[in-house]
Amino acid sequence: GGLSAEVRSQYEVTWEHVGSTSIRGMPGTLHPDSLLMINSFPPPRQIIQGLLDDGFVFFGSGPNHKDDLWFLKRIKKPGSVLDGKAYKIHVNKHGHPPAWC
Fold it and tell me: What is the pLDDT of residues 63-72, one digit of tens each?
């Protein structure tokens, strides 16, 4: 599953850990966020399929911008504070300001 090296290269995929969990010591929701930036929008089939193959589900657009697409996956880490939380990936186009800016 996931995004192949060919797809990552073709769509110039970059990945960043964002949100409150990306800042050590900052209180947050314990729902990790990542930002997946691509060179094409809306996301091509290969990007969407890669996320689905990796166990993510499409949740919809974020509340602040229709082009901030959210994909969620339940975290399964028994004994961890993250167990049962949702891992969120924001999918945006390169050069497009993230929805939380």
Answer: 888 888 999 9
| pLDDT tens-digit readout, 12-60 | 998 887 776 667 777 777 777 888 999 989 999 999 999 999 999 999 9
Calpha distance 62→69 (Å, rounded): 6
With contact defined as beta carbons under 8 Å apart, do 67 and 92 qualify? yes
Tell me how far CA of residue 53 lies from CA of 20, 73, 81, 93, 94, in angstroms: 27, 11, 25, 21, 23
Q: Residue 6 has which token pair? A: 């060919």
Local structure of 93: helix, strand or coil: strand
Is beta strand 14-18 parallel, antiparallel or unpaired with respect to 33-38? antiparallel
Task: Give pTM, 2 decimals.
Answer: 0.81
